[in-house]
Amino acid sequence: MTRNLGAFDRGLRILIGLLLIAYAVPIGFPVTGWNWVGWIGVVPLLTAIVGMCPAYGLLGINSCGR
Known about the structure:
Layout lengths: L6 H18 L17 H9 L3 H6 L7
């Protein structure tokens, strides 16, 4: 499992993941029937922590800069 996410890409995914999870909890967001959608934020958060995105691997994208 080789890393294919660069520092900027990882930081952006962490930010987006945390915002989506905050929407799901909800912290500072109104309670709606769609708050469950925020749990999708777990995916970008996990890919950022691991440093590898399966979709990037399939498409041949590498933002690591190596």
